[in-house]
Design goal:
Order of helices and strands: HHH
Number of helices: 3
Strand content: under 5%
Structural class: mainly alpha
Distance between the termini: 9 Å
Oligomer: single chain
Radius of gyration: 13 Å
Number of domains: 1
Amino acid sequence: MTRNIGGIERILRIVAGLVLLGLAATHTVDWWGWLGAIPLATGLMGWCPPYSMLGINTCKKAPL
């Protein structure tokens, strides 16, 4: 898997995922808050499957 998510976007995905999971864990939001695991996982990995399929790459550095 080649990284296709840039630094700022990774940080935003991780923060959004953690916020959604925190809201779901405290029962502030309904079941859909657990979907925060998706942006959290993609942010931690630095790779987004839909980006790969669509040929999008927001990572400015050369892939590792």
